[in-house]
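[Automated response] Your request has been received and processed.

Submitted sequence:
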Amino acid sequence: MKTYQAKPAEVKRAWHLVDLKGQVLGKAAVQIAHKLMGKQKVTFTPHVDSGDFVVVINAKDVVLTGKKAEKKTYYTHSLIPKGFKEIPFARQMEKDARKVVRHAVAGMIPKNKQQDPRLARLKVFVDDKHPYSAQIEHSEKGQP
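Generated structure:
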């Protein structure tokens, strides 16, 4: 018996809607990464990008457990002297809550050539308004 190997031309991408209102960031990021990689599909093949599109709404309403909201810090460096920046979680949420969700999901996707195309299929919105309602409805009807 042969093992099935999916081919890139055979991939059918669905659209999923994830509402983060009141959800824990880490648990939601695991589910989103799972859908972006296509691991929920029967035809999952590790070397073929068979993931789906994921639309995330209400990113501003995500929560962290324990004291992480006070202690969590995001770091960046511009590679020039004195280019190191620290941004606390609360300030990053005020500035751009989409980056918090994207950063959490990116940390759960394998660091390889498929990472950028997978993250390109992640659409994050601060509130519940998004332009992808037609694709999500079409995908939920079971049509390709």
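Summary generated for your ticket: Strands lie at 15-19, 53-57, 73-77, 84-88, 122-124. The mean pLDDT is 93.
If you did not submit this request, please reply to this message.
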